[in-house]
Amino acid sequence: MKSTETLVWIIYDVTIDKARGRIAKLCKEAGLYRVQKSVFLGTIERNRLDELTLQFEDLIDEQTDSVYVFPLCQADFKKVQTLGQAFDEKLVTDEVKALFL
């Protein structure tokens, strides 16, 4: 991972289908991996993460929707615990599984 990148979890609960779909598309375009239907994980340039956050703000209804952006350093990421069915097996790629090894 480059020094200008950060590892990030993005988790959202958005009520409008069009906005929810657009957020998923933006995450994919940013190179993040889908872990569950509304959960993305991956490394991203910090400036790109700032841009993405601004785009999310434009898409959501702040009265009803939620978007969580959790940047993590590698050391903290290694402390992540997954319990039960942590991933949607239909959505998770080998790249995501490799992050946890």
TrEMBL record:
* Coiled coil (residue ranges): none
Q: Would the keyword Ion transport be found if you checked this record's keyword annotation?
A: no
Q: Give the EC number.
A: 3.1.-.-
Task: Give cofactor(s), names only.
Answer: Mg(2+)
Tell me which UniProt keywords the record has, alphabetically.
Antiviral defense, Endonuclease, Hydrolase, Magnesium, Metal-binding, Nuclease
InterPro entries reported in the protein's UniProt record: CRISPR_associated_Cas2, Virulence_VapD/CRISPR_Cas2
Its annotated function is as follows: CRISPR (clustered regularly interspaced short palindromic repeat), is an adaptive immune system that provides protection against mobile genetic elements (viruses, transposable elements and conjugative plasmids). CRISPR clusters contain sequences complementary to antecedent mobile elements and target invading nucleic acids. CRISPR clusters are transcribed and processed into CRISPR RNA (crRNA). Functions as a ssRNA-specific endoribonuclease. Involved in the integration of spacer DNA into the CRISPR cassette.
Quote the protein name from its UniProt record.
CRISPR-associated endoribonuclease Cas2
Q: Which organism is it from?
A: Thioploca ingrica
